[in-house]
């Protein structure tokens, strides 16, 4: 290749971006075309002419300023912003900029190698009247992720990885020496390396082969890899954890409040392995009750700055997939040393309250303890005690596999705690808390982890008993620190007020089912939301309304600035009760002890950064959990392709109708192009589609019969065939 051709290639690609980058690095300084050419390392006439032409174009669009003939500069902050890129499945995106009211539209051609979630610098074009602001990415400040999951399409001595994530608008080129043993059709993890200016695709290398698409093991690991979530612990972390001294020694006991002689028990799911909370109960001489909420003292074992702490912080949360738990802490801690198993002494961190018969807190104490759990109950066993008032546990619900009798003091404790919990819950509701008792979808799995049945988990009194006392501990710990003067740095669980537009949209939708919302003020909003959630119980639209109501809520997050918790109607709230599975709870334990020891306020910046990371990891884990449920639903429906199902229309879009099956909550789509009997048009105001010729309308909440058309495990997507409305099908 001759020199002239080489220099010309140097400025191919996005010349606008190259010029703007040069000017932005020296805001306010003027450059002529010769200086730009010098920085770019070109000196041929063709390249100089391209630069002269591009400078004129950029000045004409007001992206740069011509201050004198042939001299250009850029103002440091004019029309340049930094924000987070949010890509759509259609290949374009929006950038959320804190300083601007509206998101900035970014066309596909202006993404300039930006990926979903990246922090980017953008240039915003002058806004035209009645048009949304548009911009282009000028720099990638920080990649949100550098690893992606996809399927390898192998050629002779190279390959392309087609990314699973629907928001990824490009595939990855992988050279033959970076395939890492992957074969054509394998599902893999590819790591982004670079995106050369003249290349159509980014370059990457395969770091892990996940397996054959569609296989159970492959797909579950793909879900974890897609969100950058870990699976196995590094060997050195396991080794570190296994060497910890987990003995209950007298020296450490002497530093703690000894509560081993007080009646103590746990209530957890029957298949739980880690028990991170226990309740103790005794009646005091004055007739009040002393109730202890005892939490595994994880911070006793997980010390700041250690290998174990660094790993726990990076994970930030346990991940609960349908067929497995990916724990935050190694098993030696999560299932053994920190698990409050029955008939074992444990180090705990406790919130102990004196409570009267009306559920008023009279006194409180926080600190490190040593406890001994006398009994372990499943929720079903505790519920049986509450419902019957007796301690005889029948063999069909017993976790011991045989019937047994619970001693009277334990029965009395559970019944009393349930009565107090109901009073606390009633008070919360009066104060404006919102009662989200959303139905959880669970699966019966066989030994090969294939779903053989679907069932729904609903919260009963035993669940709510535990919930109320955990809420009490979380709230009181937050109040104890939050109300101190001078202000102390602390980790709060924050929940802002709902979005007014989303509430108005919900009001519009539920009105179609005869429900109303009163959005006059906070009190009327919460009380009418609670009435709505109560009224839809057992009705066809329940799951849809529950889901839509939750979506109106702001997303809860961790932060050091307390704004209260809207959904719980608490002025102060934190997470103190689950340090085995949530890193913020570990931080709360450390800070609480730090302040009990009368130390100065901790670093705001350090804890704000940790809170932000914990919130991000919580969101990723939540997405992975949701994807694993969707995967298992699709897998379940594969074995029921010949059956007819009654469903409820749960969403209507311009390209299809979403239907949720009543008996198992599996959701799929009927594509409008598959409705052969008519041409259906979308009516967004009515949440409906209507046939041009027949006038047949399908609208949100309608009951219809469907069959499975296609169950795609890899895309985790269900397509349905519409058999007709409920009336039509049942009439025939």
UniProtKB/TrEMBL annotation:
It holds the Pfam family CSD2. CDD domains: S1_RNase_R. It is found in: Cytoplasm. 3'-5' exoribonuclease that releases 5'-nucleoside monophosphates and is involved in maturation of structured RNAs. GO terms for molecular function: exoribonuclease II activity; RNA binding. It comes from Christiangramia crocea. GO terms for biological process: mRNA catabolic process. GO terms for cellular component: cytosol. SUPFAM superfamilies: Nucleic acid-binding proteins. Belongs to the RNR ribonuclease family. RNase R subfamily. It comes from the Bacteria. It is an enzyme of class 3 (hydrolase). This is Ribonuclease R. The keyword Hydrolase applies. Its EC number is 3.1.13.1. PANTHER family: DIS3-LIKE EXONUCLEASE 2, RIBONUCLEASE. Residues 642-723 form the S1 motif domain. InterPro entries: CSD2, NA-bd_OB-fold, RNase_B_OB_dom, RNase_II/R, RNase_II/R_CS, RNase_II/RNase_R, RNase_R, RNR_Ribonuclease. Keywords: Cytoplasm, Exonuclease, Hydrolase, Nuclease, RNA-binding. It catalyses: Exonucleolytic cleavage in the 3'- to 5'-direction to yield nucleoside 5'-phosphates.
């Amino acid at each position: 290749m001759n020199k002239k051709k080489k220099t010309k290639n140097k400025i191919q690609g996005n010349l606008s971006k190259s010029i703007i980058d040069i000017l932005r690095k020296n805001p306010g300084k003027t450059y002529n075309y010769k200086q730009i050419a010098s920085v770019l390392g070109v000196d041929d006439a063709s390249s100089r002419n391209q630069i002269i032409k591009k400078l004129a174009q950029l000045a004409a669009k007001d992206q740069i300023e011509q201050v004198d003939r042939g001299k250009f500069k850029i103002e440091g902050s004019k029309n340049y912003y930094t924000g987070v890129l949010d890509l759509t499945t259609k290949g374009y995106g929006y950038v959320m900029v804190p300083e601007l009211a509206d998101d900035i539209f970014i066309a596909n051609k202006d993404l300039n190698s930006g990926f979903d979630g990246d922090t980017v610098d953008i240039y915003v074009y002058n806004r035209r009247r009645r048009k949304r602001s548009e911009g282009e990415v000028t720099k990638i400040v920080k990649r949100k992720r550098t690893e992606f999951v996809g399927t390898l399409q192998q050629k002779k001595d190279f390959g392309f990885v087609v990314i699973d994530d629907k928001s990824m608008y490009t595939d990855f080129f992988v050279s033959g020496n970076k395939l890492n043993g992957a074969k054509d059709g394998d599902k893999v993890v590819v790591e982004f390396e670079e995106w050369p200016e003249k290349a159509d695709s980014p370059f990457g290398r395969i770091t892990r082969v996940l397996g054959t698409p569609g296989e159970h093991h492959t797909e579950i690991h793909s879900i974890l890899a897609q969100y950058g979530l870990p699976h196995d612990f590094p060997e050195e972390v396991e080794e570190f954890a296994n060497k910890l001294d987990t003995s209950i020694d007298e020296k450490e006991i002497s530093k703690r409040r000894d509560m081993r002689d007080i009646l103590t028990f746990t209530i957890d799911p029957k298949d739980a392995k880690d028990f991170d909370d226990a309740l103790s109960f005794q009646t005091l001489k004055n007739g009040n009750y002393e109730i202890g909420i005892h939490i595994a003292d994880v911070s006793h074992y997980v010390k700041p700055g250690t290998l174990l702490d660094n790993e726990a912080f990076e994970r930030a949360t346990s991940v609960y997939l349908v067929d497995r738990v990916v724990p935050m802490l190694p098993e030696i801690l999560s299932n053994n040393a920190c698990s409050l198993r029955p008939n074992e002494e444990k180090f705990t961190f406790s919130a102990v309250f004196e409570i009267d018969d009306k559920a008023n807190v009279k006194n409180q104490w926080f600190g490190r303890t040593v406890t001994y759990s006398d009994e372990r109950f499943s929720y079903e066993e505790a519920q049986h005690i509450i419902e019957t008032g007796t301690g005889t546990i029948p063999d069909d619900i017993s976790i011991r596999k045989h019937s047994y009798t619970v001693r009277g003091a334990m029965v009395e404790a559970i019944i009393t705690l349930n009565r107090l919990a109901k009073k606390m819950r009633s008070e919360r509701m009066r104060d404006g808390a919102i009662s989200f008792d959303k139905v959880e979808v669970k699966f019966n799995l066989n030994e090969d982890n294939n779903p053989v049945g679907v069932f729904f988990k609903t919260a009963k009194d035993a669940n709510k008993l535990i919930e109320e006392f955990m809420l009490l501990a979380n709230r009181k710990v937050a109040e104890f620190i939050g109300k101190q003067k001078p202000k102390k740095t602390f980790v709060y669980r924050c929940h802002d007020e709902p979005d007014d537009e989303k509430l108005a949209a919900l009001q519009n939708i539920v009105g179609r089912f005869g429900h109303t919302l009163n959005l006059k003020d906070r009190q009327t909003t919460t009380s009418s939301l609670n009435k709505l959630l109560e009224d839809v119980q057992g009705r066809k639209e329940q799951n849809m309304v529950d889901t839509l109501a939750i979506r109106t809520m702001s997303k809860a997050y961790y932060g050091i600035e307390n704004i209260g918790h809207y959904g719980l109607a608490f002025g102060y709230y934190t997470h103190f009760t689950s340090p085995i599975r949530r890193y913020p709870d570990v931080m709360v334990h450390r800070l609480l002890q730090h302040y009990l020891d009368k130390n100065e306020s901790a670093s705001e910046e350090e804890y704000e950064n940790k809170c932000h990371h914990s919130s991000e990891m919580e969101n990723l884990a939540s997405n992975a959990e949701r994807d694993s449920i969707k995967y298992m639903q699709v897998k379940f429906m594969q074995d029921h392709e010949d059956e007819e199902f009654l469903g409820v229309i749960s969403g209507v879009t311009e390209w299809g109708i979403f239907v949720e099956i009543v008996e198992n909550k599996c959701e799929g789509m009927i594509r409008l192009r598959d409705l052969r009997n008519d041409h259906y048009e979308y009516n967004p105001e009515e949440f409906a589609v209507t046939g041009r010729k027949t006038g047949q309308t399908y609208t949100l909440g309608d009951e219809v019969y469907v069959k499975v058309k296609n169950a795609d495990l890899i895309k985790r997507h269900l397509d349905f065939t519409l058999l007709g409305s409920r009336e039509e099908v049942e009439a025939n």
